[in-house]
Design a protein that fits this description.
Elements (H helix, E strand, L loop, with lengths): L1 E2 L2 E2 L5 E5 L6 E6 L3 H14 L5 H17 L1 H12 L3 H22 L6 E3 L5 E9 L3 E4 L7 H13 L3 E4 L6 H12 L7 E3 L4 H9 L6 E5 L2 H10 L4 E5 L4 E5 L5 H13 L9 E7 L2 H14 L19 H16 L3 E4 L3 E2 L2 E2 L2 E4 L6 H4 L6 E7 L2 H8 L7 E5 L3 H10 L4 E4 L19 E2 L4 H7 L1 E9 L3
Parallel strand pairs: 7-8, 7-10, 8-9, 10-11, 12-13, 12-19, 13-18, 17-18, 19-20
Antiparallel strand pairs: 1-2, 3-4, 5-6, 6-22, 11-21, 14-17, 15-16
Protein name: Aldehyde dehydrogenase (NAD+)/aldehyde dehydrogenase
Keywords: Oxidoreductase
Pfam family, one: Aldedh
C-alpha cells in the first residue's frame, strides 16, 4: 500500500506479469480489508483542504515530472499492460495534459451572488470539496485512467484513495510517488492494491468515503454502485461504439478512422470503434480498403517501436475475443483478414456482413476487431446503432450536415462526432454515456464539479 507518502511493507504480495512474456514485472501488496480500512480512516482524520493556488502548483509540477519521466513511464505501462510502446509514449503526454487542465480548473471553481427576490437578503454560493474520493480504475491505459480521476479530485480539494486494477497497479504506484515529489502532502493520497472482489466493494462501501468514481465493466460497476449506496457515484461502464458511414462519406477518411479506432490499444478501449455500420453500396469499396489498412498493421512484441497491435491483457481475454469471432463466422459473417490467436495475441481482424445480433457486436468486444455491419438506409443504421445496452460515443462520416444533425439527434449516446470516430477525446469536454454505459460525466472540468458540492450562504442584503 502507498500511504503516508511511501510504499508500506506487506505480509502478502501479488505478482504483476507482462502479458506478452509472462514474466514478472514486479510485486505489490495484497492488502486486506483491515489494511484499507485503517488507511481510509487515517486519511479522513488527517486531511485538510489545500488552497486553490497550491493545488494548481502541485498539479502543474506533476505534469512537468511526468514529461521528464515519460520514457520510463511508457516502458512500465507497456510491460504491465502489453500496450505498444508507441502508444504508451502518447499516454504519458495525455496524462500530463490532463494534469495541466486540472491545474487551470482549480481557479475556475467560482460561486455567484444571488439577490433573493422579495426578500432583503443576498445569497452567496461557494464550491467545497465533496470529501474523500475512492477511485477504482481498470487495466487499460493505467496511467491516464488514474490521472483522469485523481487530478480533478485534487483540483477540487479532495483526498483520494486509488484502487488500480490488480493487473496494472505498478503505474498507479509510480504516479503516486510523482504526486508526492510534486509537493502533494501525504495525507491527500492512498493507493491500495489487492484482490478486486475483496478490496473494491469494501472501499466503495466504506463509511468514510464520500464519493466513488469507477471505470470498468457493467457488472462490476453495478456491484460498486450497490456497495456505494447513499454516496455519490461517477460510473463509466464501457461502450459498444459505432462508426456510421453514410453513402456520401469520404471513404479515405472513414477507413483511416475505422482502422485507428478498432486497432489502437489492441481494441481495449471503451471509446474505441466496436462496430462499423455502413449504409448502402459504398460498403464494398470501404471493406476492401479496410482490409488493406488492417493488413499493414503489425502485431507482436509491444516493446518493438514498429509494432502496432500488442497482446490483450491476458490469454483468457484473447480466448473470449477469438470465440466471438468464430461465433460470428458461424452466423454467416465473412472473416476477410486476421482473427488468429497466439496466446494473448489476436491478429487484427476484419469481418464483413456481421449480423447485428452477433455477440461480437452486441457486447463490448475488447480486441483488435473491425466488424462491418451493412444496412440499407440511415434509419436502419440508427436502429442498429441504438440496438445494444450501451450508449457511450459514436462517430458519423458524411458531408451532409443536415443528415448528420438528424442522426445525432436520434442516437442514444453521450457524444456524437462528425467526421471523427467515437474515439475522439479532449480533456476539455464532457465524457460519459447513457443506458448501461454509466452515470455522470468525466472530462476534467466536469469531473472537478462532480467532485465538488455547492454551499449556499445567505445574509442580510443591507446592513
Amino acid at each position: 500500500m502507498f500511504r503516508d507518502g511511501a510504499i508500506q511493507p506487506a505480509a502478502d504480495r501479488l505478482t504483476v506479469r507482462n502479458p506478452w512474456t509472462g514474466e514478472s514485472v514486479g510485486t505489490v501488496a495484497r492488502d486486506t480489508v483491515s489494511d484499507m480500512d485503517a488507511a481510509v480512516r487515517a486519511l479522513r482524520d488527517s486531511w485538510r483542504p489545500l488552497r486553490p493556488d497550491r493545488r494548481a502548483g502541485i498539479l502543474n509540477a506533476a505534469a512537468t515530472l511526468i514529461r521528464e519521466r515519460s520514457g520510463e513511464l511508457a516502458e512500465l505501462i507497456s510491460c504491465e499492460s502489453g500496450v505498444c510502446i508507441a502508444e504508451t509514449r502518447k499516454e504519458t503526454e495525455r496524462a500530463a495534459t490532463n494534469l495541466d487542465v486540472a491545474a487551470t480548473e482549480t481557479e475556475r471553481l467560482r460561486g455567484e451572488t444571488i439577490p433573493i427576490p422579495g426578500q432583503d437578503r443576498l445569497a452567496l454560493t461557494v464550491f467545497e470539496p465533496i470529501g474523500v474520493v475512492a477511485a477504482i480504475t481498470p487495466f487499460n491505459r493505467p496511467l491516464n485512467q488514474v490521472v483522469v480521476k485523481v487530478a480533478p479530485a485534487l483540483a477540487a480539494g479532495c483526498p483520494v484513495v486509488v484502487k488500480p486494477s490488480e493487473q496494472t497497479p505498478l503505474t498507479a504506484l509510480a504516479f503516486a510517488e510523482i504526486m508526492l515529489a510534486a509537493g502533494l502532502p501525504p495525507e491527500n493520497l492512498v493507493v491500495t492494491t489487492g484482490e478486486p472482489g475483496v478490496i473494491g466493494p469494501a472501499l466503495a462501501g466504506h463509511p468514510d468515503i464520500d464519493m466513488v468514481t469507477f471505470t470498468g465493466s457493467v457488472g462490476t460497476g453495478r456491484a460498486v454502485a450497490a456497495a456505494a449506496a447513499g454516496r455519490k457515484t461517477l460510473l463509466e461502464l464501457g461502450g459498444n461504439d459505432p462508426l456510421i458511414v453514410l453513402p456520401d462519406a469520404d471513404l479515405e477518411l472513414a477507413v483511416g478512422l475505422a482502422a485507428q479506432g478498432a486497432f489502437a490499444t489492441a481494441g481495449q478501449s471503451c471509446r474505441g470503434i466496436k462496430r462499423i455500420i455502413v449504409v448502402g453500396e459504398v460498403a464494398d469499396e470501404l471493406v476492401a480498403a479496410l482490409v488493406a489498412a488492417a493488413r499493414a498493421k503489425r502485431a507482436g512484441d509491444p516493446m518493438d517501436p514498429s509494432t502496432d497491435v500488442g497482446p490483450l491483457i491476458s490469454e483468457q481475454a484473447a480466448i473470449t475475443v477469438h470465440r466471438r469471432i468464430t461465433d460470428a463466422v458461424a452466423a454467416d459473417a465473412k472473416l476477410l483478414l486476421g482473427g488468429d490467436r497466439n496466446g494473448p495475441l489476436i491478429t487484427p481482424a476484419v469481418l464483413d456482413r456481421v449480423p447485428a445480433e452477433a455477440e461480437l457486436v452486441v457486447e463490448e468486444t475488447f480486441g483488435p476487431v473491425a466488424p462491418v455491419i451493412r444496412v440499407a438506409d440511415t434509419a436502419e443504421a440508427i436502429r442498429v446503432a441504438n440496438g445494444t445496452r450501451y450508449g457511450l460515443q459514436a462517430g458519423v462520416v458524411t458531408s451532409d450536415v443536415a443528415e448528420f444533425s438528424a442522426v445525432a439527434a436520434a442516437l442514444r449516446v453521450g457524444a456524437v462526432n462528425l467526421n471523427a470516430g467515437p474515439h475522439f477525446d479532449s480533456p476539455h469536454i464532457p465524457f460519459g454515456g447513457v443506458k448501461a454505459s454509466g452515470v455522470g460525466r468525466e472530462g476534467i472540468p466536469y469531473s472537478v464539479r462532480e467532485m465538488s458540492v455547492v454551499k449556499t450562504i445567505t445574509l442580510p442584503y443591507h446592513s
